[in-house]
Write a structure and sequence with these properties.
alpha/beta; Rossmann fold; 6-stranded parallel sheet; 10 helices; 18% strand
């Protein structure tokens, strides 16, 4: 019998604990049985690399994970491998993520579009596929032949992300994957975007126009980055619960299996969880070190309007610039 496979990718420095992101809170609501299985991966910068053998080595790889996005490729590979080992024809794939975990989720979907899903047992080919995808000049002809030779077609039924950021690394982006902005292999896409985030290293990363037959909706929510994706103390999470509630309301009609009792508890049990609250605390994320970062020139990629998928690089100093909300956006 076909099943749901749910992939959850947490945000920068986020992992299970006392101050959980919406990724963890959504995972807690999931029904897990023969009809739906789920996978969770903590965010970049939470754990050292597998090949780091010492405490200092693990600390250093966490630091460069935050600064340069080191570990994103490993996170994509781990989620991809889980799909390889669990996916069967007619299964439906759901992918969720927050912050750089949202970028990880979108990179995973892009990888599925370009190289398909390798059959279980071909795990040794994953590093090759990722290395080819990360090249500055991608040979799509070779990857198309790779897909035809080794892989299965595999579409993503639903992707739900909270405030995808444009900077994979805080200092420099060493990792970029194709088809993260526009991906015809996704049926339904939902994106909760922060209105009030101003930090240069947390610029919005929107989906561009939908492909034919694709259902994309991006909604702007009040608050800074983690007021949308969560990870503030539970008592200060009223705003982020709005974006969580919206995502669940979008996922359930698309077939996501949710435990209604757990959902009701997380969205407002009097003992442990606060309810969604549009008047909840609105945090300030731009302070201390982040003001220094506003002076750092950054290369930003700007999607050009008109036919074709054309991007232009531009160097900017952010200086706490407000986010630009496109005309006609849902707020």
């Amino acid at each position: 019998m076909p099943k749901n496979i749910v992939i959850c990718c947490d945000g920068t420095g986020n992992q299970f604990g006392h101050e959980n992101s919406n990724v963890v809170k959504l995972y807690k609501t999931l029904t897990c049985n023969a009809s739906q299985i789920a996978y969770y991966h903590p965010g970049v910068g939470t754990m050292g690399a597998r090949n780091a053998l010492t405490r200092i080595g693990k600390w250093w790889t966490r630091v460069i994970g935050l600064a340069f996005g080191y570990g994103i490729s490993d996170n994509v590979a781990d989620a991809y491998q889980f799909l390889m080992r669990t996916y069967e024809p007619e299964d439906r794939i759901y992918v969720f993520g927050f912050s750089r975990g949202a970028y990880t989720a979108r990179a995973l979907c892009g990888m599925l579009h370009v190289v398909g899903l390798l059959s279980s047992g071909n795990e040794a080919l994953i590093p090759y596929a990722i290395r080819m995808l990360k090249r500055r000049s991608i040979d799509f002809a070779v990857l198309a032949d790779f897909k035809k030779t080794f892989s299965r077609e595999c579409k993503v039924h639903f992707i739900g992300v909270w405030d995808t950021v444009s900077s994979v690394g805080w200092i420099y982006n060493v990792v970029q994957f194709p088809f993260t902005a526009k991906n015809p292999a996704i049926d339904i896409a939902r994106h909760a975007v922060s209105i009030d985030e101003r930090r240069a290293f947390y610029r919005q990363n929107l989906f561009v126009e939908a492909s034919p037959g694709q259902d994309i909706e991006q909604v702007w929510f009040a608050g800074v980055h983690s007021d949308v994706g969560g990870s503030y103390p539970e008592t200060e999470s009223g705003l982020s619960k709005l974006a969580l509630q919206w995502m669940l309301c979008e996922g359930e009609p698309a077939g996501l299996l949710v435990d209604l009792q757990r959902k009701a508890e997380i969205l407002g049990s009097k003992l442990h969880y606060v309810a969604p609250d549009p008047t909840g605390p609105l945090h300030k994320s731009l302070h201390g070190f982040w003001w220094l970062a506003e002076m750092w020139p950054k290369v930003v990629r700007i999607h050009q309007p008109g036919p074709g998928n054309i991007w232009k690089n531009s160097v900017r100093v952010n200086l706490a610039r407000p986010r630009s909300i496109p005309a006609g956006s849902l707020v």
